[in-house]
Write a structure and sequence with these properties.
Elements lengths: L18 H30 L7 H25 L13 H10 L2 H12 L5 E8 L4 E8 L10 E7 L6 H4 L3 H10 L3 H13 L16
Antiparallel strand pairs: 1-2, 1-3
Helix pairs in contact: 1-2
């Protein structure tokens, strides 16, 4: 087994999300971890068998792996940026300065983030930081795998699949979106941003962010 299941039971009792909804959500996440490990094991078997990697079965395993893996990892980001204790956003922080630079102010960023979350469909809304140009983007990701910004780092991740809110909010998705931002762990988000800003610094100066000597 490559991946272990992370525990998020400490979130039980958080404001805005019932324990039943969270427990259902944790179980769903556990399924993504199990399926990711199972697919990795199955692909390894095919890789060891002569000619097996040219089969349709192997191709479908390869296609499915990214979907399950992203489902696993995005849930870890999501649960990881929820706080049981209220943590206010600090507009004077370095992340606050970046949001002001890219969106004008926190209010405009929030409006854009919530607008993305209110879109029809199932998937995720992710605040990405692109270290290549030092810029933040609010991005819609369809299901788990369509719309990611390659090379950009996820700073804040919000689940907008129905399972993330319908048990508690029914079709009142907007109420869930507001509730999510009230329980966002801005310290974790700030730490992710700080880490993301360091990525470009570790690359050799003569090679640009894309690995091009030009």
């Amino acid at each position: 087994m490559i991946y272990g299941t992370k525990k998020f039971d400490h979130l039980l009792g958080v404001a805005g999300l019932s324990n039943q909804l969270l427990e259902n959500h944790f179980a769903l996440y556990n399924g993504y971890v199990a399926n990711t490990n199972k697919l990795a094991e199955e692909m390894e078997k095919y890789q060891k068998e002569e000619g097996a990697t040219a089969t349709l079965q192997f191709a479908e395993l390869k296609r499915r792996f990214g979907w399950e893996w992203n489902g696993m990892r995005l849930h870890e980001y999501y649960f990881g940026n929820i706080a049981k204790e209220k943590i206010e956003f600090d507009e004077s922080s370095i992340l606050g300065a970046q949001i002001k630079k890219d969106f004008g102010d926190f209010g405009r960023w929030k409006k854009d983030f919530l607008a993305a979350g209110a879109m029809r469909g199932i998937g995720w809304v992710i605040l990405y930081f692109d270290p290549a140009v030092q810029k933040l983007f609010n991005v819609w990701v369809n299901e788990h795998d369509m719309g990611h910004l390659s090379g950009a780092q996820p700073i804040l991740v919000m689940d907008v699949f129905e399972h993330a809110f319908m048990l508690d909010y029914g079709t009142k998705k907007a109420d869930y979106l507001e509730a999510f931002l009230k329980i966002t762990d801005w310290e974790v988000v700030g730490d992710r941003y700080d880490w993301a800003t360091r990525i470009a610094e570790v690359k050799p100066k003569e090679i640009d962010h894309f690995g091009c000597r030009c």
